[in-house]
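TL;DR need structure tokens for one chain.
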Amino acid sequence: MDMFFNIIGGLALFLFGMGLLSDGLKKAAGQKLRQLLESMTSNPLMGFGVGIAVTALVQSSSATTVMVIGLVNAGLMTLRQAIYVIIGTNVGTTATAWIVSLTSFEFKISHYALPIIALGLALDLIGKSRRVKSAGQILLGFGILFIGIGYMKDAFSGLEGNPNVTAWLERLADRPILAMLGGMAVTVLVQSSSASIAMVQSLAGSGAFGTEWENALNVAIPFVLGANIGTTI
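>> reply
TL;DR here they are.
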């Protein structure tokens, strides 16, 4: 039961932190993001790059897509330009996955989560300008996000070496459609493909898949594909 609460609580903290991070970045950048999308999407390659950059900043492919749709509706961007930007957003949204993967390295930024939160809260409370307050919110979200990841990883670590879990994951590896549907369902439920992918990364990092990385990939790849489909719903 403790493992379940740690997973749910960690996921909630992850989503809350990501929301704070996203809101802080949006406030800091403000209208500049929209202007960037308007001015730099005439070239397909540049539009692709802008999609990556903006989504990596706001940590939400959905938010970038909504902005793009608004620009298309306003006649400021063509459908052709929008397609390249949206393809870029799907690359940019992997920034969160890379951040999560960094917590598996020897240098663990999650160890510094509490000081980051303290600094962020201080900036948010005592900051007088919007930029300082936004920076505080960004740091606050960043720290909470990593605490959430830590809880999920700790919870999933209890599954390492569990023969029942390993056997179930091995069976799932032979059923990629089920794994893909699982990714879709989780993403629709939590409304964040980044959170879904963070969960499966934490599960893989905990050793629950056993020593066969082929099994991990056979589950993770269709799950991630499903998560990217689920985020469009």
